[in-house]
Amino acid sequence: MNISMNMESSSSLSSSLSCNTKKRKNAAVGAHVKAKRLKTEQEGDEALQSGRLSRSPRVSVPLDCLQQPITLNELTELLHYAALGKTGGIKQPSWCRLRHQRKVKGLNVVIVEGLTQSHFYKHYLSLRHLRTKYTTRVTFTPSCNNVASGIFSSELPTVDCVYFSKPENDMHNALKGHPVIAKFGTQRRGLTAYVLTQEEMIKKHYPVKGMPGFEEFVSTDSVDCVTDSSPLYGLDCEMCLTEKGNELTRVSVVDSDGNCVLDHLVKPKNRILNYLTRFSGVTAAMLRPITTTLRDVQEKLRKLLPGDAVLVGHSINNDLMALKLIHQHVIDTSLLYRREFGQRFKLKVLAETVLKRQIQTEEEKGHNPTEDAVAALELAQYFIKTGPRQVVELHLEELWGYTIEEEESSDCKLAPTPSLRFADVLQLLSRSVAFFGKRSDVALNLSNQRWYSSDKEMLESFKRQTKHPFLSVVQFSSFSDHLKRRFPHRERLHRSVCADLRDMCVVFAGPFPAGFSEREVRRLFRCCGPVGRIKMLNTSVRVHAEVEFELLEGATLALKTLNGLNVQGQHMKVQRPVNESLLDLDLTLDTLTEDILNTSRLYAVKLKPSVAECIKISAEVNGHTLDRKCSGVSPVNGLPAAKTDQLQLTDTRSKLSEETVTETFGRFGTVERVILPAKPGKHTRHACIKFQSSEGKHAALSSSKDLRQENYLICQSLTPPHLPSWVAMATPVTTIGGDGEAAEDENKTNMGHSSQDLEMDRMMQKLDRRLGKLFRSLPDGTLSAVVLLGHTSVNGHLPGLCLMEVKQGS
């Protein structure tokens, strides 16, 4: 894609300049960059107009929706449509457009923990791959803690069952995609077929002899192999919360006939913080006289259980962990009655549906472990006796939400209900799904999860794949883990990032005449764009002001147009803040103008006639005087005074409308859209103009002097179109309910910006390189989404960012 390739080369030039000193950034380099940028944009426009890219799948967000944050629901809405399309009964997403959906060959979602939208723009220069390869960006607000699970288990709307219900020859074929049948087959077998293997026990976090973390556990005297006639024992435990975590308070064991052979209360070793009576049924009064210890119970179990005993329980790994017991042969009923994506039924639900028995009722105070042990035992015995196929057929609709449709042709189909989940539908269509990342609780079958100890290991494995899954979710965790270790006070770090971003919109101005007010400063500076916070800096001699614009363009125009203005006989100086975090600001702003999202966008401000008369670039009209009361302009250098009525704030000639802007700028090229970000009930004096091609933007920029005669100030767009306000994006967490500026100021003086920013830049560059390698390894036609999750704390949250692109052929 020529746009991306040329933009990457242009960005590479900008990045290399960051290593040079300010003195080496001369006019010749600036002219070269400008010429190269113009060539890049024109080539990109030609490519689009010639149709080379027109038939490839593309994702875009209408301007009406671009500044609205999306959540996981909107992201899955896009993924559903990309995978199934209108043929599957899925409508176009409500917030974006995916063209040529049928040519999408796969879906890849990368989740980056610990990163926010603010991090992206703070370290914008370091993220060359992300800022040049992804043409769509929207603010992302997380709506759940586990985005990966949310994607796999997202429920589809009512879909066309004919699309994914494949006619089969018999009931066996109709059921073979069911998770129980896929694991155990259809034939009835003995109990040994359902005993967990050692590999399964390790993956499911069961205590296994020889594995790290279980050195202090006690092992039972189990034989190496069991038979189909080996005895079953039901087991259930109750726990309480102590200073050291969950500890055992009660254990029950029943034999194959359901008779209770062991039921003991146990005194925890450590101080109890919460008895968890609502679940365990154990109270302080019950444990007060108890002297039985965990060691006593372990010895009794070792003596009680024969060598070939098979322990049965529901999520029995939790019981064995509480007992600190290793037993080689177990059956877990939560894994017999399997659900899609690794989810599990509650014991209460299975007992009610399969055994037609009520347990754990509200009338009872806590669980009865003997009752639960019997229920788990009988569920296992029923499954073994009945066989997996019969179990599924008998309870298909009650438990799994499916129905079997029999047609006149005697063909059978597995017809999902409208609430069928996304990964399930894909697998029914024989499209593979997979999760890559650290071991975590993801709503997906273990066979589809691939766990790694580091992002580097995960990336290498992902690149080595000969066949990519249709849907892959890749979770990068190393960055978040490093942040937690390196910056334990993460709120300070986030406040620092936000403060640096806000400084990009700040200018210092002065001196002003004595008594010059905040209102008058605002009135003067808002001619360049919407003004946010103003802080008056009064000394015993002169008056200065710190002016914070809402947009980057406002600060840029203020530097160009107001610096050197003569205010009541005093020449006002306008300049940027000077601190370490802004040393590369000029490079960042140059790169933002080259941003692929800004190639055809222009920022314009409509001046009031009287202000236009006053505000001239100092090089053109030196000494022009602005009266602080705005009652007129002192005649200097032979210029006439302005009329009073021209200076009123209600002067309608300074107000913008879509029609007037289109008419004015339409002569430079086709205007695709005019965005007037006015608040409800108020007029606006600034606009963002999107041309159909970059040629229109550059034609307008080359005519900036002529436009100034028409009272327009213009500059290249800097603020990305998905951000309604740069400052709003950089609002620190503490403003939601904290100590605000005091905390921020303390943070800025104590954190050591230079070393911190350098370390963060290196981390960002490393992350960006890895994301680039992953993107290049994807098959052509893959819809790629990178989700920076954002940051949530007790004080509020900082939003994340979602970047989207369909990978095109070379």
TrEMBL record:
For this chain, one GO molecular function annotation is: RNA binding
UniProt xrefs under CDD domains: REX1_like (cd06145)
Q: InterPro entries annotated for this entry?
A: Nucleotide-bd_a/b_plait_sf, RBD_domain_sf, REX1-like_exo, REXO1/3/4-like, Ribonucl_H, RNaseH-like_sf, RNaseH_sf, RRM_dom
Keyword S-adenosyl-L-methionine in annotation? no
Q: Which UniProt keywords apply?
A: Exonuclease, Hydrolase, Nuclease, RNA-binding
Q: Which Gene3D superfamilies match?
A: 3.30.70.330, Ribonuclease H-like superfamily/Ribonuclease H (3.30.420.10)
Q: Does the keyword Disulfide bond apply?
A: no
Span of domain RRM: 505-579
Please provide one cellular component term from the Gene Ontology annotations of this protein. Answer: nucleus
Q: What is this protein called?
A: RNA exonuclease 5
**Which source organism does the UniProt entry give?**
Acanthochromis polyacanthus
